[in-house]
Design goal:
The protein is α/β, with parallel strands linked by helices. It is built from 10 helices and 10 strands. The chain has an 8-stranded parallel sheet with strand order 3-4-5-6-7-8-9-10. The protein has a two-stranded antiparallel sheet with strand order 1-2.
């Protein structure tokens, strides 16, 4: 087992709620997802609940169309919760239409401006291909390289504390690692019991890249799965907590999305219990290569 997969547990066996990235930056293992969280009222309500329940990390993206609302809500909420900017870990992502020379730099600056922040804690290339072009387009590798170089420059300039990628396959990572000046600190990818991307997790672990899962709840569908319900009932936890704990226990970060204050609170209570090996195996045994989101496997 690589060091990265042990990241959720300290040497003494006490649990840590953060992971140290390969450049020393510390990132919370649990953050609030915000895909489809639309409108200032909804964003404000969710962030208010999240900050009140101890979340210190929020995940957004240019394509979610909510960067400006998140920035505005944070300006209002951080002081109310007695928090400063440096208490919060903010992630955003480059829009796939902004891949490539020139466009990538502008996309990075646009995210900063929309959020109204001087710096972001983590910025990701959202997708390995360029929007509007076919997956097989032979220019995708150049667009990826140029985009990554833009993120490297933004990090060097102090605008991003850490940089990473999302939806990259092992193939995309193998291509970028020998060529980049800064190795990605994070890979954000779909990962849950129906899509146990073991090869990706092993590759990340071997290369000091933190794997952060998205769609951990299968967009809400996995919470109704029989095996998940059984484990939850036997531990007196919610099905969502079981799904999220399954990831965190492997050192994989999670960013569950909810607009409901009660669920937001429950989804963060992952550190007071442990799944036994039998439960871990039962959940991992659900693997059926099922995706609830997009598949980048065909992007050259
Ligand atoms: P998800 O977190 O797996 O599921 C969200 C859904 O589950 C929502 O419909 C939510 O409904 C429901 N839910 C939340 N907590 C629940 C609970 N405790 N019990 C029952 N249902 C619950 O899906 P996701 O939004 O796809 O993924 C999470 C985040 O990952 C996104 O928001 C986004 O930030 C990120 N993401 C990134 C990518 C990428 O390409 N990089 C792709 C997808 C997602 P309510 O809101 O009504 O609670």
């Amino acid at each position: 087992m690589g060091a990265e997969r042990e990241a959720g547990l300290s040497r003494e066996g006490f649990e840590m709620e953060t992971v140290k990235l390969n450049n020393g930056v510390e990132m919370p293992l649990v953050g609030l997802g915000t895909f489809r969280l639309q409108g200032y009222e909804a964003v404000h309500r969710a962030l208010d609940a999240a900050l009140g329940q101890g979340y210190r990390s929020v995940d957004t993206a240019a394509v979610y169309g909510n960067e400006a609302d998140i920035g505005r809500a944070l300006r209002d909420l951080l002081p109310r919760h007695g928090l400063a900017r440096h208490d919060l870990f903010v992630t955003s992502k480059l829009g796939p239409r902004d891949m490539g020379q020139g466009a990538a730099e502008a996309g990075c600056l646009h995210s900063l401006e929309a959020l109204g922040l001087d710096y972001l804690d983590l910025y990701l290339v959202h997708w390995p291909g360029k929007q509007g072009y076919r997956s097989e387009d032979a220019r995708n590798p150049s667009w990826r390289r140029e985009s990554w170089e833009a993120l490297e420059r933004m990090q060097e300039a102090g605008s991003f504390r850490a940089i990473g990628v999302s939806n990259y396959t092992v193939g995309h990572l193998r291509e970028m690692l020998p060529a980049c000046r800064v190795a990605p600190a994070v890979l954000q990818s779909e990962f849950h019991p129906r899509l146990v991307q073991r090869d990706l997790l092993d590759f990340c672990s071997d290369n000091s890249i933190h794997l952060q899962a998205y769609s951990s709840l299968g967009r809400g569908e996995l919470v109704a799965e029989d095996k998940v319900l059984r484990v939850a009932a036997s531990l007196g936890r919610t099905p969502a907590q079981v799904l999220l704990r399954w990831a965190v226990q492997q050192g994989v970060g999670v960013i569950p999305k909810s607009s409901d204050p009660l669920r937001i609170g429950q989804n963060r209570q992952l550190f007071g219990f442990c799944l036994g090996q039998d439960h871990m195996d039962l959940l991992s045994g659900m693997h059926s290569n099922t995706r609830y989101c997009w598949d980048s496997g065909t992007v050259v």
